[in-house]
Amino acid sequence: MRLDSPIPILRMFDEDKAREFYVDFLGFRVDWGHRFEKGLPLYWQVSRGHCILHLSEHYGDATPGTALRIHVDDIDMLYAELTKKHHPFGRATVQQQPWAREIQLRDPFGNRLVFAQPSAD
User: Which of 16, 63, 81, 100 holds its CA 20 to 30 A away from the CA of 42?
Assistant: First the structure.
């Protein structure tokens, strides 16, 4: 038996704002999206490398304000990439913590994404 990494579901409220933040700013791609019919909530999968996220407009799928950690192998490269772009929710700064170097961002829906490069021990 094998267990894979969990796929977090993050609440979103606006498709255009989600695309602007996750695709245009963070560099994720939309793998697929689903609506039961026009005008109903959207459910998306976005990914970048091995990082997969689900974004949902469905009430009850997730709570705004969720926090998640995403491990990266080169936080400086990510920082350089993000600082070239301008996004009102994306004021990236690298913070040194005892356990990792981190960039913490909030998406337009209040979710907190912590990109972390673990400290070498």
Answer: 81
Domain 9-118 top-level CATH class: alpha beta
Instruction: Name the β-bridge partners of 47.
Output: 29, 52
Mean pLDDT of the chain: 93
What residues contact residue 47 under an 8 Å CB cut-off, 6+ apart?
28, 29, 31, 53
The secondary structure of 64-118 as a DSSP string is TT-EEEEE-S-HHHHHHHHHTS--TT----EEE-SSEEEEEEE-TTS-EEEEEEE
In this structure, are residues 43 and 37 in contact, taking their beta carbons and an 8 Å threshold?
no
Query: How many whole angstroms separate alpha carbon 25 and alpha carbon 19?
Result: 9
Per this entry, what is the length of the chain? 121
Distances (CA, A) of 66 to 36, 51, 79: 25, 16, 22
**Tens digit of each residue's pLDDT (9 = 90 or more) over 10-24:** 999 999 999 999 999
State the pLDDT at residue 87.
78
What ranges do the domains of the chain cover? 9-118
